[in-house]
Amino acid sequence: MATSSAISEGLLAKYEPVIGLEVHVQLLTASKIFCSCSTRFGDPPNTNVCPVCLGLPGALPVLNRKAVEFAVLAAMALECRINEVSIFARKNYFYPDLPKGYQISQYDKPLAEFGLIEIDLNEGESGRKKIGITRLHLEEDAGKSLHEGFADSAHKTAIDLNRTGVPLAEIVSEPDMRSPEEAYQYLTRLKEIILYTGVSDCNMEEGSLRCDANISVRRRGQKEFGVKTEVKNVNSFRFVKQALEYEIERHIEILESGGKITQESRLYNAHEGKTYGMRSKEQAHDYRYFPEPDLLPLVVDKKWQAAIRAGLPELPEARRQRMMREYGITAGDAHTLMLTRAMADQFEAAAREAKSPKRVANLVQSELLGRLKAQGLELEQSPISLAGVAASADLVESGAISGKMLKDLYDLCFERGQDFPAVYEAEGRPEQSRDTSALEKLADELIAANPKQVEQYRAGKKTMIGFFVGQIMKASKGQANPQLVNEVLTKKLEG
Ligand SMILES: [Zn+2]
């Protein structure tokens, strides 16, 4: 079981964790959801603001159509039902970075409902598990309180309202997850799906994907949920998992010692690996939701829905299955090649032209990604394109170059910052030797020096040829053409 080692198996046999997740995804629109201010990240504080997002009296919100289309596309990718009519509502609370004193969100009539994400089960269990998505709704982001990085920050907090009014899709799951590992998987799948739709960059460092986790435990067999706590704003999937492991353990300890769980919001301190209850004034208890009087109900009729659906790309799971089928690659290959949609697109374009797509997949993993990682480069910065990988794979496939030669050529590509075909040309289209005289001499020597192995081979143990091939490859420092070595040896040994 992939939960914290700190929780004893015995206690987990007695208690079952119940986890639900709320994920906020920033939609990649150029302008904010209710005004035309830019959503650009990293601009000087308070430069992308206007009377609307500052909440000045008399300013009226105007809904950004692109934000709606992005949210609908995400909802469709998550297999949600789109509600033709949804309602914006005011969520009232006081916080310094919320200039209006309320956030425009959606409450009892959200944009979309009843979706799902499939995850793999824990190790050792077969099949897949469906995690329900309760709802996906649109809302605006709040501003940001800055506690460091400016003069006087030891004594003061500053407010940056650039983020105020940036469009978000909030995606709320059902409490369907039963372990931190399942929560981790759900988040990984969710991010992958959203990335494929292209509606968000899901960049957690820049806050375009944020996660709150609800957790409770109950005695196994018990139907009612236990009292839950909410861990707010954890900024990596690994930390979500760790925070959940910590909370599960904390809940069980309290219950085992006869105590009661307090329903509250908590913050995770990644340095200490612990959660802490938030000061009660940071907890809003009653948001007093009511319909936003300045916005009409949002109507996404069937025609608009169909137009948006036409832009839905092939989704990760379907693509994974198809790529495995089409190119004869393994689930592991497909997983690596699909880390980003750009990589999957480039792989497919290259693989379609290649003699062996499987070899292209292997080279990407064994030769390309390692070199990129060593140099701290992203795929987009790779000197070797996937088309270049495919070209090199064909040369190995046809026996023109050896694996060792390929490695050397790749090293040159990275040194020179040039793609494979250019380096291959510049090096005078090198070919591995097809001259057998040197090989024959080596083979004769080997055969003379290893009579016992020769005898075994001739007595029918044909796999013994591997021993001789290995010796010759070693002697040639990997430069010999394995196919040729095989031919020469077979002839000698049979003779
Ligand atoms: Zn504005």
Strand and helix map with partners:
Layout: H1 9-14, E1 15-26, H2 51-54, H3 65-77, E2 81-82, E3 85-86, E4 88-92, E5 102-106, E6 112-120, E7 128-140, E8 144-146, E9 158-160, E10 167-173, H4 180-197, E11 209-219, E12 229-234, H5 237-256, E13 265-269, E14 274-277, E15 290-291, E16 298-299, H6 302-309, H7 316-327, H8 331-337, H9 341-353, H10 357-374, H11 386-397, H12 403-416, H13 420-426, H14 437-449, H15 451-458, H16 465-475, H17 482-494
Parallel strand pairs: 12-13
Antiparallel strand pairs: 1-10, 1-11, 2-6, 3-16, 4-5, 4-15, 6-7, 7-10, 8-9, 11-12, 13-14
The structure holds zinc ion.
Structural summary, described in words:
The protein has 495 residues and is an alpha+beta fold. It has three domains: 299 residues, no CATH class; 111 residues, no CATH class; 58 residues, Arc Repressor Mutant, subunit A (Orthogonal Bundle). 40% of the residues lie in helices and 18% in strands. It contains 17 helices and 16 strands. The strands form four sheets. Strands 2-6-7-10-1-11-12-13-14 form a nine-stranded mixed β-sheet. Helix 8 crosses helix 10. The protein is elongated and about 95 Å long. The two termini are 58 Å apart.
